[in-house]
Amino acid sequence: MPPVPSTERAALEASIRAKVNCEKAAYNMQWELLEPGVTAEQLEAAARVLQPSHYEDIVAERAIDGLCGYPPCTNAAPLKGQGPKFHVSIDDRRVYDISSLHSFCGRECARRSHAYATSLSTTSLFLREGVAAALAPATAAGAEREAAAAATRQDAADARRSGAARVLDDAIPAYAFGVMGLNEAEAATKTAAKAAATRAAAKAKTQRAAEGNASSRSTAERVGQAGLGTTERTVRMEYG
């Protein structure tokens, strides 16, 4: 397989980065629209970035948080499970699923939200505008959020580095103390061995002295017994 030319590789890498940045822009815009009281400028900027699927997620998340699904509205959404799920139309002779209305405070917000969702493009931002779409955040709030995220990542990296430095600072004294403890233990072992050898030598000396005394007593007894035998024979010869 022939190698890919460097120019094509660079273009491919730039395209992949642009796609990722476009997805990141949509993700940041979703977070902006989850806040209560979204402005008209934010909603207009979001229309350039979001697709209908992105907006559906925003409506669902706002309803879970207890907010009306239409981002500019500050009213609360009905509690989950309240209200009918279906509407029976006698004129049309049809049953309509109206459970999606529970994500809004009223029919007017539901109508506006539906109109906004249908105005969004189903084509991704990257396919619509290319690499240029990923060069700048959609709004100033998005730029601030990106800067805050970068600062948070930098703080986390600094914390990891400082934590590693503290561990190293704690490990050096511990290592030195461990070496000192090993030296002290070795010296104590040598002292104990020397004392044991001294005690063994003293015990052996005492044992040899005791054996010598016992040998002397045995010799004296033999000499005494021999002397008594000689005296007895002499008496017998004199008075025989």
From TrEMBL:
Q: Which GO terms describe its cellular component?
A: cytoplasm; nucleus
Q: Which Gene3D superfamilies match?
A: 1.25.40.820
Q: EC number(s) per UniProt?
A: 3.1.3.16
Region described as Disordered: 204-240
Assigned keywords, A-Z: Hydrolase, Metal-binding, Nucleus, Protein phosphatase, Zinc, Zinc-finger
Instruction: From the Swiss-Prot or TrEMBL record, state where the protein is found.
Output: Nucleus
Positions of transmembrane segments: none
Using the record's annotation, list all stretches that form the RTR1-type domain.
45-129
- Keyword Membrane tagged: no
Q: Which Pfam families match?
A: RPAP2_Rtr1
UniProt cross-references to InterPro entries, sorted A to Z: Rtr1/RPAP2 (IPR039693), Rtr1/RPAP2_dom (IPR007308), Rtr1/RPAP2_sf (IPR038534)
Please list the GO terms describing molecular function: RNA polymerase core enzyme binding; RNA polymerase II CTD heptapeptide repeat phosphatase activity; zinc ion binding
Q: Which reaction does it catalyse?
A: O-phospho-L-threonyl-[protein] + H2O = L-threonyl-[protein] + phosphate; O-phospho-L-seryl-[protein] + H2O = L-seryl-[protein] + phosphate
Main location per the UniProt record = nucleus
Q: What does this protein do?
A: Putative RNA polymerase II subunit B1 C-terminal domain (CTD) phosphatase involved in RNA polymerase II transcription regulation.
Entry similarity comment: Belongs to the RPAP2 family.
Name used for this protein in its record? RNA polymerase II subunit B1 CTD phosphatase RPAP2 homolog
Q: Which organism is it from?
A: Chrysochromulina tobinii
